Amino acid sequence: MSEQVSFGYEDVTPEEKAQRVGAVFSSVAKKYDVMNDAMSVGMHRLWKDKFVRRVKPQPGEQILDMAGGTGDIAFRMAARGATITVSDINQDMLDVGIDRAMDKGLDSLVWSCQNAEELSFPSRFFDAYTIAFGIRNVTHIDQALAEAYRVLKHGGRFFCLEFSTTEWPGFKEVYDFYSHQLVPRIGQAIAGDADSYRYLIESIRRFPPMSEFEGMIRAAGFTRTRVEPILGGLVAIHSGWKV
Length: 243
What we know:
Layout: E1 5-7, E2 10-12, H1 14-28, H2 32-40, H3 43-55, E3 62-66, H4 72-78, E4 83-88, H5 91-104, E5 110-113, E6 126-132, H6 141-151, E7 152-163, H7 171-191, H8 194-206, H9 210-219, E8 223-230, E9 235-241
Parallel strand pairs: 3-4, 3-6, 4-5, 6-7
Antiparallel strand pairs: 1-2, 7-9, 8-9
Helix pairs in contact: 1-8, 2-7, 7-8
């Protein structure tokens, strides 16, 4: 029997997931940032600011921002003087990021279309690896984590910002209703695409719980792992070190 992986609430082949995830992000690329504001009532900006404060980019550092698409994390880190390589498997998302960088007058970023599971970068090259709201869309998360470990220098740090499941009583039920019932409608109204946003919500539900994902990070070789829940775990910052 062929391998099955999750695409939202469906189980599909790895090849089908890769194709369908690609179609989702090509569809939403141009409205991605507007939708992030609408879905999170602007809170995603605060989460990303906090995330970058945890990364602590330094002048002269080489940082890989994987699944960096439209540039939100990269722009914040570049402002602190680090050299940022923005990578994404979806060229449509990168194109949006490149256009945004040009509008901002940022020409220091490196843009590279990459599969997180098979990076073309040399081993022990980057000081830090970041991925925000992207790892749950990877077909084989363990392979992406292994690649993150490979391309980091000894002493390098891994940071991941990702949705999880809130553990706050009451809030969980409210969020479940909002995400399943209202987010697809917002997606239809703003991006003309309810199905893609239905998948994005379902992908959150299929993502491993915080403790399980932390175990996956440790299994990839990282030490001093940490999980920092936000809003009871609705969002979490995961981190680890390559030593």
